[in-house]
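Quick look at the format.
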Amino acid sequence: MSRLTKISLLIFGIVVVIAIVMAVVVKTMVTPEKIRATVIPLTERSLHRKVALENIHIGLFSGISLQDLLVRQKEGSDNFIAVKSLDLHYRFLPLLTGKVVIDHIKLVQPQIIVIRHPDGTFNFDDLLGRKIAEGSEKTKNAEQAVPSRSTPKNVSSGTNMNLLVNSVSVSGGHLLFIDRSQSKQTPTRFSLDQVTFTANKITLDKSFPIELSAVLNGAKISISGAYDIKDKSGKVDFDLQPLDLVGFAPYYRQALPGKLGSGLISLNVKTDLSPDRIAAKGKVTLDKLDLMLNKLPKADLKQAKLEIDSSLSYQLNNKLLDFSSLLIKFNKIPIRTVGKINLSGKEPNLAMALFLDHLDLERINQGLPEGLAKDIRNYGLSGQVNALVELAGKPSSGARLLKKADLRFEDVQANLSGVKTAINGSVEFTGQEIKADKLLLNLADQPVQFSLDAKNLFGDHITGNFQLTADTLDFNKLMPVSKENEAVADKGENIANPQAVHEDTKGQGGNVNTSNPGQQTKSGRSEIGPISIPAEINGKITINQGTYKQLGFDHLFVDIQLKNNHLQITQAGCNLAGGKVSASTDMDLGEKGLAYQGKLDLSKLQLAVLDNGLFPDSGQRITGMMDSGNTFSGHGTQPPELLKALQVNGQTQIKDGEISGSPLLITLANFLGNIDLENLSFLSLQSRYVMRNGVVSLQGALDSSVIKLQPEGTIAVDGPLNLNLNARLSPVAMAKLGSDNNLKQALTDENGWGLLPLKLEGTLSGPRVALDSKALQKQAVGKAKQELRKQLLEKISPDKKDQKSDQNKQLLDSTLKSLFGN
């Protein structure tokens, strides 16, 4: 036998002997009875609950296995914790010294039932209370249960079994949470299934890795990382696949501003934990979000998506939340922010900055809730907005939270009532001041420049000024006819047809009560005001050339002032129709209906230009040079009520003019049988008028070679005319009058002019002309008296130079007066 063979047999024999010795030691020192005597009493004393252990298996290489370990509920016989098997793997070498060191624990199919009672307490509250009540001494003993490798310690003084846990693993775990606090009859249940947990190289003074995975209500949860028990620090990653939030509704229902129909939450977050700081970086997503809002029904969310991508930290000592980056996307609409929130006081204190980077308004339009979007989409928003907004202070500060804002508009477009509008430029807000320097507005493809500077925005009194300038501006492009106005125009219910308005008001209950402008108007819309604006703002509007309808004007200027809650046009004017227009107004914003007063002056306007520009297709024409001065006052913003409240005093004079196509002249020409009156040239047309309670009182005079009129009477804004024309026809016109010669002679004065007491009734669009019978009778009596006087004087005093002639005239006039009256 070779020497090598002998050595091999010797080593084999030694191994066999050691194995036999180890088996004997295991069987004699680590017995089921010793394990049972150690584990069950220790567990029952710690948990204050009954503990059952079905089987204990001990193997030389497999270690110790506890089968079917049960921990009962504190009250009753139901299970609190059930473990299919608990495997403890010991190390061999310590057995030679008479000690058992277990360095691996494996739990198979542990099941835990957590119950929340109707009063809000849990079925494990006594365990937490015991740990807290017993203080540091028991805590130290618990820590001694997992000693470090270098300094193993006994579990208790009565045993010689050290518990050095090198690794712990859990497989097939299950946790059932039963919550009876929300409803006694139908408790809420949550299930955490397929729980798997591993922790390796566990030690009290070094970081060790951990991994956990489970399925919560069908959603997979994964947790992995490393943790240091001594330093209470570690790095842990959390991953949650989409979890249905509806099942958790009882816990957030009261906090929501509405009702949640559906929603999935998922997250992927990496955390860095320390005793005084928690840092997190990752993403949280809410998807397929259906939320019906109580107070904003139009803003109901349907299948919305909210993404939060952040990097933040929370200082536990000073309660400071720090956002190094936070990106929020709602339906792909991004908002980025950085800053800090101090939570140490009764109210949070913010110091944050919000960033809008190339924010696409069209995308916002598409991402808004349908209830809001369907109203906003009509505006056709497009373009991009860039913004930096700085906030500092407490939320209760309201608008004062805003410390700085820089807004930059890049071809931002909108369709406002059919008018294509665009804006380019920057707006800056600093402290309490806002500035917009040469902001470029594009109104229906017409450039307009706007500048603004306002200060003390959050103070008691705002001050500022603005300027709006344009080289050319066509107002026709800014005032498209709306569908509503088109419908009204089709019915003829506009100011051009006052009779239609009059008939309409009859159908609604008659006259309008204008004594109380605070009442709701007949249109169903409440009057504006009172408004309080604690500000002093000065502004100027300048337009070099402009167009309204087909009428051009130039050098338009409007000086505006807001002061003491009065909005004033201190002066305004332009060159128009060869003349000038000037105006001023003062509007009191503090009254219901916004009371106002002002004046309007027109100087040397060419009516032909004015008429052709404003009413090119009316069929009526008027020419001449017009001067007019008017003062006005009133209140109200809703027609026809504002016309009822409008008060006007004015006078107008037109020289060397012509009128044609007027319904009034056509009616008068038909009545007198003289077609020449349909086109009337005149030397002058003068009028004085006063408007009160919707009625214009008029006195006027028209002087032409064909007819002279002295109208006097009233015109109501809702249609009715009541005018005495006091007409005088020229001898040529009288010759064309188809009447009896005796009647003509009765209506003719000594110069051959016919005196016709005509009365005008009806409406402006449908006038009616008639003879005033009473005036005609009085005029006939006067004519007869005058003729009789003439004949009697020729007989009584043929010599007009006779001294008795004057005495005879006086005696005759006295006699005729007693016969015919005045």
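Next, a different chain entirely:
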Amino acid sequence: MGTRRIGLGYPNVNGIVYLQADEISTNPASNTSVVRCYLESADGNGASNVYGGVTDATGNRQMFGGVSGGGAWTQGPWDITCVHNADGSLTVGLYLQAAGGPTGTATAAGSLTLTTLARAPGTPTSPILTRNSDSQNTASWTRQDPNNAAATGTYVQQSINGGAYSQAFNGGAVSSVALATVANRKTVFQVRMSNAAGTSAFSAVSNAVWTTPAAPSNVQASRSGLDIALSWLDNTAYAERQFIVQHGTVTGGVTTWDSGNLATVAGSSAAGGTFSYTHVSPAQGVTHVYRVAAQTTDTAHLTSTYVLSNTAIPPTPPNLPTWVTLPTFAAASQPLTVNWNHNAVDSSPQSYFSLRYSTNGGSSWTTIAKTASTTSSYTLPTFPTGTVLTIQVMTWGIATTGGSDGTGGSPWSNIGTVTFRTSPTVTITTPANNSTVIKSSTSVVLGFSQPEGANFVQATIQLSQAGTILEQVSTVTLTGTPLSTHLDTGLTYQLDVTAIDSNGLTAAASGTFTALYAQPVTPIVEAQYLPDSGVTQLIVTVPTPGPGDIAAATMTVTRAITGQLTDVLVDRMAVTPGGISILDLTPTIHGDNVYTVVFTGEDATASTATLTVTTAEDTWCFMNTGAGWTDTIAFYGNVEGNLASTPLRDSALVVIDGRARPIVLFGNTATLDVIGTATIDCTEGSTPEQVEQFCLTADRVCYRDWTGRRVFGLLVGKLSNRNWYTATFDYTVSEAT
């Protein structure tokens, strides 16, 4: 702030009057400053009518003083408010006047340059947001720059879909700015301006601008009584939207859309949610389809893409029903239940049916009146042998108009024809009811008759014991069908037989029998696993029959391994009392071997013994070849961790005319290559020479290792790093199935 002092001298009088002016305050908001003034006399002579004046930017001169007196004195202060120029600058004019001196009036003039003032910008007005596209809006406003200082900065905030405000622009002083946007947005903005003197308040919030709403999804049409209910999921992000529903019909795969909209559905106060519309009583017998779009409610009416619904059919009379397995022949004097398919056009279930039948070729009909039922079946009364019955049925769904009768009914079905014949008779001849079977197996012999000459076609024989079905077999012969079930002596069994004749009619028979026989002596089985050779030795003792016992005539021995086929070790070998040694040369060496020994008597009765031998080999591997697998080599604890397998299946690429690329055909043959490496040590197990000879003479081999694997296939072997007592043995066993 400045200060200035000017003086006025009086002629012929040794005296001076002074004016002192000081800028003491500024007010940028009103663009004014206050200048404080003093008048001062510095001599001893009198001075009269002394005035001061200050002139501001408006040209207004403000006078003060009018004092007089002799001697030294000071008068004031006088505070003068001065208006600055529009740009905030001001140099005030200072004026001093003394009147009444000896020679009259004397004046003096000067100036004082004041502080240049600056104001913060005013709050911007008229914020307007304009939509350019779904990717850009333009924000504009009216600046309120002060006269004494222009704005230098602009800060724009926008709110998206009603969310919190965030920075959209921060830059130099402008009156508009482009704002990036995307579809499915509602945007408003506010703006403020700044300069070195400060920052304005935010403007009022602008008008809202919307971009194209998101399309709805999951548009579903479904029949609801006589109407079609339409529903969809709203995906718009703002509340100012509505939905446009359009309707079309489909004929021969071609959709024809109505010329105008079917409906406009109002949105809710919150975005999102599920909306619906009901198309009341659309035309029956027509396939309907709909499409729905979201649309803004402002004057722009921005509209999303339309989303297609599924097709829907309102209540429509069904097509004619069709018979389900209507028999050509039926058993006379027995009720006949007929079944049909209700063939809806509109997917509605059967609600009613009517049925009519004739026994004279349609000359007259007996009609079962329209009956409320969702069950597509009806049981007819009995008819005598020789009756030829013709029958028709009609059904109703949900439709109540149209159709063959005007009430929504289908046409009558095609005529079905059923001829009534006498049912056949089947009997169980062997084993006779309540008889005794003296063997451990039996065959079934049947008797059959039908008075009108129909032939026996097939029978199903079921064997049960104490309510448990043991076996069921179909047969096309009456003369003897063997059953495979082993019959236990002392138990009673039941036979149930159902026979079918050439008319398709059935007959049933049942009977029981008891198995009662003397069993052969029971095998005594012992077993020992021989780890050095990977062999199981069985010792089977054939007991000498005692009084009332039956001697064993033959012996069958099988071995089963979990997850593999059962092998027959001995098949119906003739036996006499005493001990028999049996070697199983290829058991699993890590797992369960289940041995079953069956003694059969001369009358086909049998007795059984079972023994499980569990092996847990964790070091040895074996290979067998030759007749009966008698040639064996062993590797002791020497699989070096690189045991691998390669499963393959036959396939071939085949080029087919009309196809750009070949196709793959898979065969039934699958191969499994087991690859391993072992170190042969002649101090234990097989020597290198024995392994070499084995590889030279082996045809099909059985490979067994401590993983429980048993592989039958072809061997490729190689000996390397060989000296007089060790060698490396690389082998591949390829199994083909």
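Residues 122-210 form a domain with the Immunoglobulin-like fold (CATH 2.60.40.10).

See the schema section for token definitions.
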